[in-house]
Amino acid sequence: MDILVINCGSSSLKYQLIDMEGEKVLAKGLVERIGIEGSRIKHEPINAEKVVIEEPIQDHKKALKMVVEAIVSKEHGVIESMNQITAVGHRVVHGGEDFSKSVIITDKVMEALEKNIELAPLHNPPNITGIEACKAIMPDVPMVAVFDTAFHQTIPEENYIYAIPYEYYEKYKIRRYGFHGTSHKYVAFRTAEILGRDLKDLNIVTCHLGNGASITAIKSGVSIDTSMGFTPLEGLAMGTRSGNIDPAIIPFLMKKENMSCDEVNDVLNKESGVLGVSGISSDFRDLEDEAAKGNKRAQLALNLFANRVKKYIAAYIAELGRVDAIVFTAGVGENSPLIRKMVCDGLNFIGVSIDNELNDVKGKERIISSEDSKVKVLIVPTNEELMIARETMELVK
User: Which Pfam family would be a valid example here (predicted)?
Assistant: First the structure.
């Protein structure tokens, strides 16, 4: 069974074709600058050279047509015909309260996705565009929507309701939704496999630390709390996002800087986080390099970030009652021994101890806690595409 996984952005499209018999990636790639001058597709067949095709790509329908052509091409294809694609799994950012699990896409599902655009105005429209383009090219192939928010629909009411007038939840569905759910779910399942334990017997704190970052408390395989909220802006300080701040800062800035609501929103989403604090970069590699040279603001940004991560982990351990494993994933979590050490060094009060030699690694799956650590600490590279493919296969097989 070959599953095509699609992740559509406003001007880009990522894809993977996965043979589910061995969960083997046959091909992957990226279509970029859709509708913009200089558009191209970067196609990577398994065990072959990467191919770059540059030509005008005016819309997502054309992009998907090029993806399928690349996959079945005699020169650099990996399957003989489009008929070998059993199903398509689509990443969809926001399912609102309508979806607590992945679903086969129907007209009714599409109506719900349209309704939820106001909850994710930057993400859901391109997700919908990708689905519609795919349906036009492969009308008879079943399609599945896998939601970033679905995994967090198990969070109890006291954890998702905000302390504002309840009528705003009733009228506008303002509540914590959480994101990165597909990543947190994959990492939790993989952690149980690595430890040789039943996921239902484990309490895990998963740390998806990248340019966007979130932490989730998982009890018996179920999300009970997560750091991102109504939008991905809440929670940790991130690459360019502020994370939690005093809400009164917003009207204060609007008055002092004569800014509109949209302008403040842009500052908090695009100019804040470790970029705003350091004044250097949103890339943690740059910050680590500058901090090593003695740049105080770069060091401050790293300290702030690690401290926020530590606070959330400690808070979620209190909610869980006990923790069996703390897991680091995503770009920073997988590739920064320094950040992992800064976070874990502050958690020795609960018996966390990492082995510095084991921790000195980038992008590899391994247990990095010392033998006497009361809590297992792991690096688990995330694989959202495989999780999407698994969920798609389960629904269509």
Answer: Acetate_kinase
